[in-house]
Automatic annotation (TrEMBL):
This is Ig-like domain-containing protein. One of its GO terms (cellular component) is T cell receptor complex. It comes from the Eukaryota. It comes from Cyprinus carpio (Common carp). Coiled coil: none annotated. One of its GO terms (biological process) is adaptive immune response.
Length: 132
């Protein structure tokens, strides 16, 4: 049986809070990567808030957004247990890129970057899979 490369489709959108001084930009709307490789989703931000936590969420087809991780440029970080092995982010003064290692077809989803917590952190091991 032939094992060809499968492409992973990743979609990003941004969530903007109502503050006029806050801005989030995810320049890559669509990304495709072969299984087994790493991919980095970009997120640039601007905020005047002294409490600048950055959040990443994933939303698979027919499912609610789920919390992936939180980062702060002051060193605070948290990653949901189901994403700790392959998902990581390092925050800088104006960006918080999300890197997914060993990308899988099941990673095909919409990814959200946000300056505010927009989805309650869910304690669940259930993951709905979506293949594009």
């Amino acid at each position: 049986m032939s094992h060809g490369l499968r492409n992973i489709f990743l979609f990003t959108i941004f969530i903007l809070d109502c503050r006029s001084e806050d801005k989030v930009d995810q320049p890559d709307e669509h990304m495709t990567e072969a299984e087994g490789r790493s991919v980095t989703l970009q997120c640039k931000y601007k905020t005047d808030s002294p409490q600048d936590y950055l959040f990443w969420y994933i939303q698979r087809a027919n499912d609610f957004p789920k919390y992936i991780l939180r980062r702060s440029k002051y060193g605070g970080e948290d990653t949901d247990a189901q994403f700790q092995e392959r998902f990581d982010s390092k925050v800088s003064s104006n960006s918080v890129p999300l890197t997914i290692k060993d990308v899988r077809v099941s990673d095909s989803a919409v990814y959200f970057c946000a300056l505010r917590p927009t989805v309650r952190k869910l304690k669940s091991n259930h993951i709905q899979k979506h293949v594009s």
